[in-house]
Design goal:
Shape: globular
Number of strands: 5
Order of helices and strands: HHHEEEEEHHHHH
Largest sheet: 3 strands, antiparallel
Number of helices: 8
Structural class: mainly alpha
Distance between the termini: 32 Å
Radius of gyration: 17 Å
Strand content: 5-15%
C-alpha cells in the first residue's frame, strides 16, 4: 500500500485522570505480559506529555508500537567487534542514548529502561521536534531523523499509531462519561506553536 502524502498533526497535551487512563490500558492491553508496569506507563505518559505538549495517549500508542509496552526491550542491535551483541535503542519508546542526551544530559541506558523516565524523555524530544518542525512533521523526524527523512511526509506506521491513539482516547471518553465526568475531563494546553 502507498503512503499518504501527509498525516494528521500530532495531538496536543490533554490532562487525563490517571485512574481512568490505567483502566483504559488494562482494558485495551489486557493480554500484555507487562500489565504490572502500566501505572508507571501512565505516570510517564502524563509527565512526558506535559513536558512536550503532546497527548499522553499518543506517547502510549508510540510506546506500544515501538516495544509492545515492554519497558526492558533493547533494539537496533547488531554484533560488535568481539561478537558481543550491542544495542542502541532502549525502553518503551526505543530511544537511543545519544538522541536522549539532546533533551537531558544525564541520560544513561539504565535510566532509559525506567518506563517513567523513558516516556518523559520521549515527550521532551517530541516537544523539541514540534517546536522546531511543527506538529505535522515532528513524528517523521522522530522516526528517522532530520537528515535521512527531510523529504518524507509520513511514516509507514503513522496511521496504525494514530488509530490506536484515537481508540485509546475514545475508550477514555466513554469511561469518563460513564462516571458522569466531562467527556474528556481535560483542558487542552494552548501554545504558541
Amino acid at each position: 500500500s502507498s503512503l499518504t502524502l501527509f498525516h494528521k498533526p500530532l495531538p496536543e497535551y490533554v490532562e487525563y485522570d490517571p485512574k481512568i487512563m490505567l483502566e483504559v490500558l488494562s482494558e485495551n492491553f489486557h493480554k500484555s505480559k507487562h500489565v504490572k508496569t502500566f501505572s508507571s506507563v501512565v505516570e510517564g505518559a502524563r509527565v512526558g506529555g506535559k513536558a512536550g505538549n503532546i497527548s499522553p495517549f499518543w506517547l502510549i500508542s508510540h510506546a506500544y508500537h515501538e516495544s509492545r509496552l515492554n519497558p526492558l526491550v533493547e533494539g537496533d542491535c547488531k554484533k560488535g567487534r568481539r561478537g558481543k551483541r550491542v544495542c542502541r535503542s532502549f525502553g518503551l519508546a526505543q530511544i537511543q542514548v545519544y538522541t536522549a542526551k539532546v533533551v537531558d544530559s544525564t541520560v544513561t541506558k539504565k535510566k532509559l529502561l525506567d518506563p517513567k523516565f523513558n516516556l518523559l524523555i520521549a515527550g521532551k524530544y517530541y516537544g523539541r521536534l514540534i517546536r522546531k518542525y511543527g506538529r505535522q512533521r515532528a513524528h517523521v523526524i522522530y522516526a528517522c531523523g532530520p537528515t535521512r527523512c527531510k523529504n518524507m511526509r509520513t511514516t509507514p506506521t503513522f496511521l496504525r499509531r494514530y488509530r490506536l491513539y484515537k481508540k485509546l482516547e475514545r475508550s477514555y471518553a466513554k469511561k469518563a462519561s460513564l462516571r458522569g465526568e466531562s467527556q474528556v475531563n481535560a483542558v487542552r494546553v494552548q501554545t504558541d506553536n
